[in-house]
Amino acid sequence: MISTTFDRHVVLIVDDVPDNLAMLSDSLDESGHIVLVATDGLSALERLDHVTPDLILLDAMMPGIDGFETCRRIKLNKDLSHVPVVFMTGLSETEHVVRGFEVGGIDYVTKPIRPQEVVARIGAHIRTARMMSQTRGMLEQAAHAVIVLGGNGLPLWQTRKASLWLEKYFGPAAPASHKLPAPLHDWLKEQLLRQRQGGSLDNVPPLVISGSGGGGELRISLAGPGQGHGVSLLLEEKATGMSATTSGEESAGVPVSLEGFRLTPRENDVLLWLGKGKTNRDIADILGMSPRTVNKHLEHIFVKLGVETRSAAAVLASGVAAGGNVQLLQ
After folding, report:
1. How far apart are CA 115 and CA 222, in angstroms?
2. pLDDT tens for residues 171-191?
3. Using the 8-state DSSP alphabet, how is residue 261 labeled?
4. DSSP string of 215-245?
5. Is 52 helix (H, G, I), strand (E, B) or coil?
6. DSSP letter assigned to residue 175
7. In angstroms, rounded to a whole number, what is the distance separating the alpha carbons of residues 25 and 143?
8. Interval 193-206: pLDDT, tens
9. What's the predicted TM-score (pTM) here?
10. Span 57-66, mean pLDDT?
């Protein structure tokens, strides 16, 4: 499959009404986008076999397979699942809006279409998708297990390791499912409800799931909204009595020899990325918190580690992670 690398963003419009196609194509073209069109769901899927757009503008009601089924098939394709889908619909009933989100849509606009509004929303969603893609690539390289959630509480994307751990601890998901496992969904719903009632996500205890046969445990922590994305789930697997992962790889948290410093799970995450040379703003974006919150965590970390500078903390974290015997001169 060819992935578009143009400076101009590529938008695929799927609509069976020629007048709508013409109006939207002209507006998007004038705003600097490259426009592709399809008149039904099947022809849209055929186009997507050859090109990956930056966004899909999809009519909900079409002859043949409707927009909801078209979106569901798109999201089942791992090469396309990251592409944001915005529904166009004349339906205002709540069940149709909910159905659009359930099959993977990220937003919707109602008919009659207002071109300027559509162009503005498309631009915002493409910028968000690009930032998320950059963050996802960085997290995949770091082998960090992360799930980013949309405003509807459904996963927008997740790292490969997160998918493997969810299946290991919760069992395989249904092929067409885009939802979190029920125990995790219920826990998340409870935490978000507390947040809406005035609570904070910063100090929520992690959800701990034990593996079958005592083969380790999965710890799932919450990260609040950050730049370019919403709430995130940070996953860390620990073998029983150890801090390493069951596969022997580096865990998502701080190595075992730092556990004596009694860092919180969130401080562990901050210190991990500090040891990888990330700036405060980088850490804030990755963990979904404000730079100011990162600074507060670092203040606590410095006290617990007995150091005075971020460079000393970074040396300690990276040295222990590499298996070294690091001593800091005070």
Report:
1. 37
2. 887 655 668 888 998 888 888
3. G
4. --EEEEEEE--BTTB--EEEEEEE-TT-SS-
5. strand
6. T
7. 40
8. 877 777 666 667 88
9. 0.44
10. 91
Residue 301: which of 286, 285, 283 has the closest Cα?
283
Tokens of 58: 């999809």
Distance of CA 135 to the CA centre of its chain: 8
CA distance 133 to 196: 28
**Tokens 């919180």 found at:** 264
C-beta pairs of 193-201 under 8 Å, 24+ apart in sequence: 200/224, 201/231
**H or E stretch including 319?**
helix 310-321
Higher pLDDT, 2 or 309: 309
Strand partners, 155: 149
Which residues is 38 bridged to in the sheet? 14
- Cβ 138 vs Cβ 157: under 8 Å: no
Answer whether 71's CB lies under 8 Å from 44's CB: no
Question: Which residues, in sequence order, are CB contacts of 154 under 8 Å at separation 6+?
Answer: 101, 102, 104, 178, 179, 180
User: How many CA atoms lie within 13 Å of 127's alpha carbon, on the beta-carbon side?
Assistant: 8
Six token digits for residue 123: 């631009």
Scored b (16 or more CB within 10 A) or e, 290-318 reads beebbeebbeebeebbebeeeebbbbbbb
Separation between Cα atoms, residue 64 and residue 77, nearest integer Å? 20
Q: Which two structure tokens, joined as six digits, stand for 264?
A: 């919180």
115: β partners: none
- Give the 3-state secondary structure of residue 31: coil
Determine how β-strand 51-52 pairs with β-strand 2-3.
Answer: parallel
Structure tokens at 216: 């380790």
Q: What is the DSSP letter of 205?
A: P
Among the residues of 106-178, which ranges form H helices? 115-141, 160-170
What is the full DSSP assignment across 85-123?
EEEEES---HHHHHHHHHTT--EEEESSP-HHHHHHHHH
Token code pair at residue 212 = 């079958």
CA–CA separation, 317 and 255 (whole Å): 8
Cα separation, 305 vs 300, in Å, equals 9
